[in-house]
Amino acid sequence: MKRLALLALPALLVAASAAPAAAQSAGRTGYVRLEHLFREYYKTKLADAQLREQVEEIRTEREGLVRDFEGLQTRFNEARQQAAQIELSQEVRDQKRTEAETLLGEIRAFQERMQGYDQEKQQAINEQRLRMRNRLLGEIQEHIRDYARRNGFSAVIDASARAANGVEIYQYFDPGADITEQMLDILNRGQAGGR
Length: 195
Fold this sequence. Notes:
Largest sheet: 2 strands, parallel
Number of helices: 5
Strand order of the largest sheet: 1-2
Structural class: mainly alpha
Helix content: over 70%
Shape: rod-shaped
Number of strands: 2
Radius of gyration: 33 Å
Distance between the termini: 67 Å
């Protein structure tokens, strides 16, 4: 038994001395506030401005549709009122009643068209926002991976992550391990108003 223990002792010493070396070669852990990086990335601001422009164009176009719709409603109300005026001949009232019914059909079709327009444009904006977000996050993450490899990090963790209940996952991390500002400098390097 003593002999077995003596044989095992060198193996344990080698393993014990290798453990710190393995830990050192594994690198260190860094933290970024990904939410902050995304918000302050110059390309995010450009993409947001482009989306706002498109939303404004849609709003202007929709205002034109609303004006057209209101004009249709006005014509319907006038035809309906004239159809009820007893001082007009029966023939004119019947004509106005028919006109009002036709306009009512146009109003209903226009309402459906506007509802479809709203849904289509909202979906298009949401899809574009998602594509833009995913593309920009991919760029940011690639920069983080490059920085981590060049600087010996074994992991970089998003310190702005939240649990499903909305509570921050990381209650504390060493501020010296926060590489958010370095990453922001890299992301915005050379841009007007950049860092």
